[in-house]
Amino acid sequence: MTPVQLIFLAVAAVTLAAALMVVLTRNLIHAALWLIVTLFGVAVFYVLLNAGFFAVVQVVVYIGAIAILFIFAAMLTRRVMQDTGPQLNAGSWLAGLVAVLSFGGLVAVLSQWPGFSSQAAALPEGADPLVQLGTALVSPDAYVLPFELASVLLVAAMIGAITVSLEKKP
Amino acid sequence: MIPLSWYLILAAALFCIGLFGVLGRRNAIAILMGIELMLNAVNINLVAFWRYRAAEGIAGQAFAIIVFAVAAAEVAVGLALIISIYRRRNSVVADDINLMKG
Amino acid sequence: MTIDTLIWLIPLPPLLAFFVIVLFTNRHRALSHSIAIGAALLSWLGSMVVFFRALQVEHFGEHPFGSQINWLQTGDTWFKIGVLIDPLSAAVIFFVAWTVLMIFVYSVGYHNYGQPKGDHDRKGLPPHGANVVDAHLHKHQVPSIEPMYSRFFAFIGLFAFGMYTLVISDNLLTLFAGWEVMGLCSYLLIGFWYGKESARAAAIKAFITTRIGDVFMLLGIAYLYSATGTLTFREIFAEETLAHLASTPAVGGFLGLSAAGMIGILLFIGTIGKSAQWPLHVWLPDAMEGPTPVSAMIHAATMVSAGVYMVIRMFPLLSAGAEHGALTSPMLVMSFIGAFTALFAATIAVAQNDIKRVLAFSTISQLGYMIAALGIGAYVAAAFHLITHAFFKALLFLGSGSVIHGMEHGVLHTGDHSVDPQDMFNMGGLRKKMPITFWTFLIGGFALSGFPLITAGFWSKDEILADAFGHGHWAVFLTLALAALLTAFYTMRQITLAFLGQPRTEAAKHAHETPWTMTLPLVVLAVFAIGYGWVGIPEHFPVIGGLLPNWFHEFVGGTLAHHPEAVAFSRWPLLTSLVVALGGLGLGWLTYRHYKAGAQDPLQKLLGPLHKVLQSKYYFDELYDKVFVKPVYWIADTFTNQWMDRGVIDGFLHAVSRLMLGIGPILRNYFDKPVVNGIGDFFGEGSKKLGRSMRVLQPGKVQSYMLAAMVLAFGTLFYYIYRLLRP
């Protein structure tokens, strides 16, 4: 077992445990915090996949914005939601079953794929994934369109969020 | 070296945990958290496939970036909606929002 | 117009009169009687023309008037009907025309035309009289006009049509048609005053009794037709046909009769019914319920005569197969029944008190004479007596009607309605009050008794007795002689009680003569009652014998193929006639001339309990009631009505309806509700249940939707990828 593998396994364990805690914990704030741990784990995975940029973006966007947003929302809706009531709904057993079966199914299907156990090839020399990404996002014959649309989407989401949560002036 | 299968299994596990959270939690915010987990699992999958299978190109990464953006937007709007519902109905329990009951 | 066409037209005027009166002129009395009398006059005129033309033809029997038409197609041939006036029917139509006309005229006065309407008169009951106030403010009751005046004339018009049709027929079918029309009219006219229970009963009795005879007659006609293929008289009486009928045995070998014998007897039974011979005589006395013109017409002049006319007409058939002098079976039957009835009815007549009833039994008795005469083969004598009897009996009935009218006037005058105007014991001394009626009645009565020389009845009755004596039929001779004695006796009894002596009641004291419309016919008929006898004086009669030719014998005798011989003259039957006629008349006068009001009938004293039997007509009515009428009623009411109709048929229907009523709810509960409703409900309720059960798919919860989506999506996805990766 190479050290990388060990690291991977450790981080994977932490991530998955944290993810479980997210979905199982009663207290919503705790769930949000566990989410942050999970997101951190995911960030580590990005690093292991030579996508360092993503790790940073993960931390900044997910943890720094989204998770915080979750905490805010939890706090804003806390009054009613007493953390003492049940937090799993009636059909959760079925959900769990479906989740397990889906996992099993996914693994079974993927393991049929010949490329399932392929190793990582070496990165091409001199290739900088980050530069490549940046170039691709703004070059017209690459992905500038989705990029611009994404920004439009973000604007729309922003406007939408503001509109939805705007309180009517009396 | 880490075989691709580990990443895929990890992502699958994460996805399924998120799926359970979506389908099984009462609180709407917790459901959104589950969705975040699922999106993250997808992202991991995308980047893993880029790294192991299509590292020459940049398509995987571009896809992952867009997913980030979409996820963010979606969370923002989702939470705004939840806040709005909470203001109206004083409840964020998903089961209570059943106006479309047949 | 030829004679043959004229004959066809003779019955029509009365028929038309019937229809016109019934349809149009029922309310107009004068118009109705004028139409009726006018029609009778037209028919009379036609009959007279035909008769006098017939007299001019030499050997008329061989060249009769007549014509035929094809009436009904029967296979390849035609059934023909037609008219025939041969000597017999010419003589008969003569008397029919006169009597019918006289009776029509008489009816005008009889039904009190010109009198006011009665106070309490109702249709269906005889008129009661009206109260009038005269110039001196005296109130008295007068006879009132008959409420159903026009109807009477319509009915007698129809009746006249029936009789004329019968007389002019040349075949049994139209004869039978006329016969039946008269049967109907007798029912209508006997029951004319339908408000009276007794009249209704009498009408039914008459119809049913004659019907019994008619059924057998119809059987005879049918048998005759099937044996010979024709019903026309001249064809039946052809030598070969008669010989054939006489030689073939009757159907079923009945009592060894020949076909001719059987047919003859069957036809004769029709006459027994129609001419009221024993045993079917019971209807005639009761038929006196009808108005007197009806009694005269139907029961003297025409209808009962039709029965005798028919057997006279069928004489060749009845006598077919007889060896010279011997009697055939039908003739034996006829002579027995005729003679028996003559005596039987005469014995009953002596004990009757009602003036019309005496005449009724007298008619039965005289018809017996005619039939007995025919039975012994005295063809001409029977026809002669038929015609003379028609005249004097019609005269007697109309006279009795006049008497009754006079008595009724007296009853109304005195106001004593307890007095029966028809009871002879309430009369007396009417000779002075009603002279014309008296003299004409006397003439009629003498004719009936056979008063010598000057009355027609003497000549005809004497001829029958002579024939019976001359051919050696002793039983018939003695019976008829005895009956003649009784006839004379009861006739004189009747005349004495009614007309001679002193009035025995107030009503009789106040009777008065009837109007000219009633007395004129009496006078006319009296002329015939005297004069008609002189056309038939036998050739070898002492003193007067050869003075006048025996026209009647020559004329009517010519009807037969073999002209009958006149019987040789013998003084014994003549003496017998004289003795019984004068003796009977004398006895009657002697017995009753000192009769006082309220006293017992001298005859009753003489006969004792036998008198009661005679008066009750030998209890034949009671016998028939017990033996025939009551059982038939039982069958009709108890058996057919209650058991069969109500019990079986209605019971069956009730059972069916109960069954249906039972089936109804069963069907409803076991088929309609569960199956039919079930199917309907299945669709309705089923849809609702399906919907409700499918509601669970729409809980409104997002997570449920997502769960479902996940399951399906993953499932499908895995399946296809699996298939893809593992081909």
Features:
heterotrimer; A: 170 residues; mainly alpha; 2 domains; 0% strand; B: 102 residues; Helix Hairpins
List the helices and strands and how they pair.
The complex is a heterotrimer of chains A (170), B (102) and C (727).
Chain A: H1 3-24, H2 28-48, H3 52-76, H4 92-112, H5 129-138, H6 144-164
Helix pairs in contact in A: 1-2, 2-3
Chain B: H1 4-24, H2 28-53, H3 59-89
Helix pairs in contact in B: 1-2, 2-3
Chain C: H1 3-9, H2 12-23, H3 29-55, E1 65-74, E2 77-85, H4 87-110, E3 130-133, E4 139-142, H5 149-168, H6 172-190, H7 197-228, H8 233-236, H9 239-247, H10 259-274, H11 283-286, H12 292-301, H13 303-313, H14 315-318, H15 329-349, H16 355-375, H17 379-414, H18 430-433, H19 435-449, H20 456-470, H21 474-499, H22 506-509, H23 516-531, H24 551-557, H25 571-592, H26 602-607, H27 609-615, H28 620-694, H29 702-725
Antiparallel strand pairs in C: 1-2, 3-4
Summarize the structure.
Helix content of chain A is 71%, strand content 0%.
What's the main sheet of chain A like? Answer: none
**Total helical segments of chain A:** 6
- Approximately how much beta-strand content do the residues of chain A carry? under 5%
Helix content of chain C: 55-70%
Model description:
The complex is a heterotrimer of chains A (170), B (102) and C (727). Chain A is mostly helical and 170 residues long. Chain A folds into 2 domains: 1-82, NADH-ubiquinone/plastoquinone oxidoreductase chain 6, subunit NuoJ (Four Helix Bundle (Hemerythrin (Met), subunit A), Up-down Bundle), CATH 1.20.120; 130-170. Chain A has helices at 3-24, 28-48, 52-76, 92-112, 129-138, 144-164. With 102 residues, chain B is mostly helical. Chain B has a domain at 27-92: Helix Hairpins (Orthogonal Bundle), CATH 1.10.287. Chain B is built from 3 helices and no strands. In chain B, helix 1 (4-24) packs antiparallel against helix 2 and helix 2 runs antiparallel to helix 3 (59-89). In chain C, helix 2 runs antiparallel to helix 3. In chain C, the strands form 2 sheets. A two-stranded antiparallel ribbon of chain C has the order 1-2. Chain C has a two-stranded antiparallel ribbon with strand order 3-4. Chain C is 69% helix and 4% strand. Chain C starts with a helix and ends with a helix. Chain C has 727 residues and is mostly helical. The model of chain C has no long low-confidence stretch (mean pLDDT 87).
